[in-house]
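Hi everyone, sorry if this is the wrong subforum. Our group has a chain we'd like a structural model of before ordering constructs, and none of us has done structure prediction before. Sequence below.
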Amino acid sequence: MDKLINDISKKFEALGQNAETHFEGLLHGKPLNYWDYIQTDALLNLQIQRSTLPDEMVFIVYHQINELLFKMILWEIEQVAFKKDLKADFFSSRLDRISRYFDMLSSSFKIMGEGMDVEQYMKFRKTLAPASGFQSAQYRMIEFASTELINLIDYRFRSTINRNTPFRHAFEHLYWQAAGKDHQTGEKSLMIRLFEEKYMDTFIRFMKDYNTRNIWTLFQNLPSNEKENLKLVNSLRHYDHTVNVKWVMEHYNTASHYLESGKKKEEATGGSDWKKYMHPKYQRRVFFPKLWSANEMKNWGEQNLEGHEILTNFDEIEI
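Answer:
Right subforum, don't worry. Here is the predicted structure as tokens:
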């Protein structure tokens, strides 16, 4: 106990603090309990329905859980992005954590796909327009932090974008911009206009911060002996496939279950062409393109790579 008190005293002295004041404060502190630490009361009061339909609660809570997992993913990416003397083992361990979060997100879509009454969903969703899951700022940040910006640019404009392109110009040509525009007039929908009013400046700052700290750039800048770590490469491949194929397809299939369940084909609440926006075979979004063979890239999103994304050697790819 004497050693512990001495060590704590040194800690506060190093901070320029009076250790005695902090020890005295302990005499008057309240014991910690679970509900205060987790902020349970606040958390359970964040679900505000817009309708009287009970299954809307499933929809709200599920999306809030998604956002909490997105926060955990960004937290893990930050550990990699700002790690000094980054090594393959640390890199791989954090990517595996991120993949587990996305694995959980993928498997959890049954909560949405099978957990709501179709008739109720088709009613309460009408109260949500023009809001859309498209407007998840954290998910966009995960994309920016995962790969170089060019890999998120619409294929039609990639030849016009390079590292000297202003961030705001590149932003206007991101793959998901097409989902928020009228294809005939080029005008942005209300959904995307509101989204950009809220987050545009935040996104531009984030894009700049991760321009050279994103996962793909960090990997490419590793020393050769670290970059050729097969476990790390497989962690990257698993993450890429989980995010850009597996999770997206689970989302796509869930949307199809509800939006195509009736005689009338429904539009997304945000007004996007949800099929072309969501299906990976259209966007062909790949975070780590050099880690996939030419055949895998050609068939991206059209074949099930799950279980086959693990490499045993480097024969088919060049890094």
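For your construct planning: Residues 2-30 form one domain. Residues 230-259 form the longest helix (30 residues).
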